[in-house]
Amino acid sequence: MKFKQKFLSSVIALGLVTSSMFISNANSQQLEVHHIDVGQGESIYIELPDGSDVLIDAGKSNYGSTVVNYLKGQEKDIDIEYLIATHPDADHIGGMQEVFKQLNVKNFIYPKDAPHTTQTWQNVLSLADAEGCTIKDSTPGTTFNIGGATMKFIQPTVDYSDNNDDSVVTYLEYKDVNFMFTGDIEADAEKDMVAQNLVTDVDFMTVPHHGSKGSSTEEFLAKAKPEHAIVSVGADNSYGHPTSDALNRYNAIGSKVYRTDQLGDIVVKTDGNTATINGNNADTSRMPSDITGHWAETQIKDFINKGYLNGYPDGTFKPQASITRAEFVKTLNKAFGLTGKSGKVFDDTVWHWAKDEIDIAVTNGVCQGTSAITFEPDAPITREAAAKMIANYKKISDTYHDKINGYNDGSQTAGWAINEVEAILEAGYMNGYSDTNTFKPKNNITRAEAVVTLGRVIANPNPVMPEPPAPAEPVTPPTTNPTPNPPTNIGGSGLTDSSTVYVTPSGKSYHKTKSCSTLKRSKVINAVTLAQAKAQGKSDPCNICVK
């Protein structure tokens, strides 16, 4: 569920001028959006809260009767208050011929700057003229406020040579639930929409151009972040729509994808707070169902809200599941704003969805491949490897391994990662498992652990690494006097001036044994004769070991 303030504030920031305004004061109730199954084409019927009817596109000519009959099934004597043609392609406007012939259309809206030389399009325009309806240009910024809902044209102010990119893009908002209908826009229009700050995050979105390879770009989806993506597409179509490339990009951001070739008509109903799709509850909160009460819930929600990481299409986050190397570097890149690329590609990332994210991580020194030619993007990442990447980014390491060696399994840490693991422990970014006093360096880091670890890095951006202890002074063997003095018994302790005792550089006591409990925290212990110890000012016998 998105918040209305986000969109309205972006409109204010843009200073968009509304070219026309249509207002209805009818009481608000429920809003419905019907994606009519018209094969390899598109037709979307919207019933607004006050009962006004909107039709965006009508499929191919041979689907005109299908659309009309569907509309009559919703309302016997239906009138179309607004008929919107996104662009002149036949699979979007062909069925409008039948709509004009059989239904009363009050307002017809289309992009007048789009080329319209086909006979089908000429027929549609002629029928619109004959209908006597109001004909308007789909000017960017045009806004309709109808019965509590807001509808706005948000396509770029650019005249493209390609009909697809000239498509009308419509934003629809009802209370806290919102939609975006994208026509057949491709990468150029998507790029301009992002650049002009026209894209806001939405709950429901029609997949641009039926899921073509050149649409649904990562940059566009990173802004739109649709929880639910609906593809209007024909079964076994010759275009291969929706392409696996496009579907993978939706999967990567956690969108749930619905297809008319698989489900038929797809109907969304909402009261502005909750929504259903074909009668089933549709979560519009963006929050996965399996994080409530989890120890990492707060941090996971924060990362999802900021777009660093997403849940899965089934509505879960799977906090205890492993996170892959590709997912981890993408999350790290997003969390720290890394963007620089060098074109680095591995043999197993050429066609991978995270190819660019992996390039960014490698270019910024976060990581390397698992070999010169492989990255293994879908392999789970271990705790020591995750620590290594974070330490690389922070440029921290620690060669004094007192933290990691304090764990029962610290010695299992790989040599290539131990300095970085130590630094991560010193910085407080990661911890071990207190119940077993283990670090488990070879275990896969979980999605929850990864999020919390990166959250700690964000919270403590300038960790102070401890100074390593001074190198241990060499143990000096006691000097042997070739002509020892007669033994002098000191207080019944059994020590003489030539006896070996143990001292620390700064202490005042001498000790009979190096394993004395009072010396257990001392890093430097020297062996000297008692006479030498006294000469150094070590005149106090230890009250534990010197008796």
Task: Name the descriptors.
elongated, Metallo-beta-lactamase, Chain A, 23 strands, alpha/beta, 3 domains, 8-stranded mixed sheet, 9-stranded mixed sheet, single chain, 27% helix, 547 residues, disordered N terminus, 16% strand
How would you characterize this protein structure?
With 547 residues, this protein is of the alpha/beta class. It has helices at 4-14, 64-74, 90-93, 96-102, 119-131, 187-195, 218-224, 244-252, 260-263, 297-306, 325-336, 355-363, 383-394, 418-427, 447-459, 530-535; strands spanning 21-24, 31-35, 44-47, 53-56, 79-80, 82-84, 104-105, 107-110, 134-137, 143-146, 149-153, 170-174, 177-181, 204-206, 228-231, 256-259, 266-270, 275-277, 280-282, 500-503, 509-510, 526-529, 540-541. It folds into three domains: 4-282, Ribonuclease Z/Hydroxyacylglutathione hydrolase-like (Metallo-beta-lactamase, Chain A, 4-Layer Sandwich), CATH 3.60.15.10; 301-459, no CATH class; 472-547, no CATH class. 27% of the residues lie in helices and 16% in strands. The protein has a nine-stranded mixed sheet, with no helix packed on it.
Rg of Cα set: 35 Å
Estimate the helix proportion, in percent: 25-40%
Count of DSSP-assigned helices: 16
Q: What is the number of domains? A: 3
CATH topology assignment of the largest domain: Metallo-beta-lactamase, Chain A
Distance between the termini: 76 Å
Taken from the alpha-carbon principal axes, the silhouette is: elongated
CATH homologous superfamily heading of the largest domain: Ribonuclease Z/Hydroxyacylglutathione hydrolase-like
Q: How many beta-strand elements?
A: 23
